[in-house]
Batch of 4 targets.
Target 1
Amino acid sequence: MSSEYIVLNPEILPRHIAIIMDGNGRWSKKRGKNRVFGHKEGVKTVRRIVESSVELQIKYLSLYTFSTENWNRPKEEVDALMNLLVETLNDQIDDLLKQNIRLIAIGNLKRLPENTYKMIQEVMNKTASNNGLTLSIALNYGGRDEIIQMAKEISKKVKNNIIFPENIDENKINLHLYSHDLPDVDFMIRTGGEKRISNFLLWKIAYAELYFTDILWPDFSKQNFYEALADYQKRERRFGKTSEQIKNES
């Protein structure tokens, strides 16, 4: 069945979708290939989902690209991932501009290799004025690290009387997060069969709807993406309220 047979209500699509792209390594292993082969195939899926998001006029798409914990992987794999990222951004810059996509990166970017950091900054600068889809890639990102860095920044400002403790609220906290440019996540998808958050966007997912699928990331199709969104549209988002309150407000 093609995704064109899944009818989505454009009025209740998520504003911000976050995806944990899991399963590249296992996908490769099943085919007797090395893990890098799976990551390259995973890039093709990224393109499919980005294109689908543009078609659906999704405003924000965040992809968990490289976590703070991923540095613990074999050096050869880490190096290959960084090189693949540079190659992909270099290849896709024209498409990003053509599709009116703004690229941003969240995380502690200063730890990235110099050529990776420079390429990310170049693409972010070139796409900064685009106002279609905001594509956020999380690099050297960890949800706990984000919260720790936020706490340090606010603590410095409190010490220097820039911020007063009684004025600290959710908005102040949000302004000091790596992800300060992003709204709260509405819908989080994880491929690959695991059912956990893995330290991704912990502050932003407070009321996110979660969707888990056994499909490995390189096999995650446009059809699968539409199926996930159709599932999202069946849910009632209450934000702590009762069903009756939600119905009365609509």
Target 2
Amino acid sequence: MSLRTEKPRLEAGLLLRAYANGWFPMAHEDGEIYWHDPDPRAVFELHHLRMGRSTRKQLVQEGFTLTHDRCFTEVMRACADRPETWITEEMIAAYTDLHKAGRAHSVETWLGDELVGGIYGVALGAAFFGESMFSRVSGAGKAAFFHLSGHLREQGFVLFDTQYRNPFTKQLGAVEIARADFQAQLAAALSLPVTF
């Protein structure tokens, strides 16, 4: 299900209310922002996510360094830097405000001083809503993803949303659940006092 947003302008408070109710924004080809609440919903089961041997080997061989929240806006811009993107300047501004408020987070993959991969999303209670990921070097995005999933487990997160299942998220381990099940898991996650 998707609905086109009407003004008011996209801003941090509106995003928080939307995520708390299971909705998230995406820009469509017409340039307008639509709100999505898919059924089924795609999630990652945190207790099943583990970095594979080949990814771990590549992490060591490439000499990647991983950080949290070091350059959130740059990660988001890198995720938007593709021929077809659902991330607009308005969204970048609103999510950057969320990041400044401690609600949106990024994991960065570095090769020396160069940002080569990353992932960002929104944290509410014990729920993390994964938004987008990028790689400029093979394996850099996956390294950020598995680093993030390990961090979420360690912090006590219980829900890792990935919105839609596609060939890439499926490869990472995404499964689909009914919207009603997602809403129940979200309600439970929001009641837990977990911090990123």
Target 3
Amino acid sequence: MLYEDLNLVFRSIRDLCSQDLQRLVIDSKEDYEKCIEFCSTYMPHLVNKIELHDIPIPIFDHYGIELDINRALDRKVWLKSGGYISIDQTEALVAIDVNTGKFVGHSDPEETILKTNLEAVKEIVYQLRLRNIGGIIIVDFIDMAREESKEIVWNALTQALKSDRSRTKILKISELGLAEMTRKRVRESLVQTLCDPCSYCSGKGYTKSPLTICYDIIRDIQRLAGNQPNKKAVHVEVHPVIYDQMFEEEGRYIEEIEIAYQVEITFKVNPKLHQEKFNIDLS
């Protein structure tokens, strides 16, 4: 088990008492000595499990941890066959979708689907542990026509989860190919630990398209100009991307509004604005 932060290191000392963790490797000599001192006093049987990483190669590079962390933060995880799973975490549940992707496989589609689903089972269980995913989990396997195929996949999933420390409960795969399960939440997920919600999209995972924002602006101008007919000038402040979109494709609407409402519309570009935000003033 590898940690760079001392607080996490001391937490992992407690986990060393379990059979799942064989050793603790630390790349800070100071933190290593503190751990050895602590364990020598309170848990002497753990001293031999603590190692100092004293070679010049960074600890995450040496053990390949960086690659696993990047994979654990990605929505899509590729399988060796060319298929992939996508993992989406919401407040209510975690949805995992299995896809054949680039995998063509055998001439029998059912065999291809079964092979992909079985490969996905191993990766799903690994990702559940790696990402510390808990709560309600819905796995959308590729639809299988044969009941025996569903049984094979369900048995593989049940067997793979036997080595999981967290308590799990799995229901049979439904006719729609969904496997519902719960996994005891032991600690925060890896995403919650390492990441913050996107400051730009506020954690939604998407933003309105420039075209949609342009139509929002057009409707707001029409609304404001119609409610205040005595105003003759409209000043609009927008993000540069929205400005480009407006005059590349939607400029004719601006001309039509100017004629219909007898106003002059001017635009000001502000690169500091959020792409979805804009300001409209009438004078």
Target 4
Amino acid sequence: MHDRPHRSRGKKNPGALIWLVLVLVLGGGCASGPKIQSPENAPRLRIGVEPDRPPLAEFGPNGWYGLEIDLGHRAAKAQGFEAEFVDVSQIGPFEALGDERVDVITATLSAGASPRKGFLFSRPYLQLGLQVAIRAASLAEFEPPLALESAGARVGYLTGTPGGAFVRDQLPLSNAYAFRDPDAAIRSLRSHRIDFFIHDGPKIRAQAARYEPSGVLVLPRALGHENYAWVVRARDTSLLARLNTFLDRAMASRILEAIYETWFPETPQPAE
């Protein structure tokens, strides 16, 4: 399998306050897979992303936009490639990467977690805090964050996410409720079946905003942090090396700061 970007015959697809630190910016590289010609004769780097994750990635009338989209374009352009963004929300990021539908994905890498078998992670380029959604009417009653740590606190999380790991490791006295759908978790919060819902900052804010008129809000205090990195297949070591090389170079530039300030205008906290 050649470690080169794809060429596509078709048209290019349309493409916190959390404590957040933009640590590194991803660079370009080649991707593995068959070589096919695009009308512009430009090699493509297929990047798997998920929509509805403002300000990281969203899809609107004019195509993809967000921090990860800006990073992806710069990563590809730096090496002379065209970025092609692929919605992997239905099949799942790792599944799409393993099936060679995309060449690289973004993923959360929990602190101390082992990389998934068959995949390699780049150096982290983004640091996001978990946040908590709560009923506005219950804010004074629960007095978070102490209530969150109290015995019997009813805490919701999504299965297989850093929020679930946080509940398991940091809230052993809570009554934990697993959900597969964030809408279901928010509905349970509104109907008093749970008292807190923990999820990563951009996703939970986007979700809660839809329910804000009905009294759902997100606490500004972050709960620890999770690192975001790019992921490639384990055999694509050359691609990973090029990504990490560009990361090292970009660390000394102001490109990452410009992208960060565009999507997160608040002053970031120093990296730990």
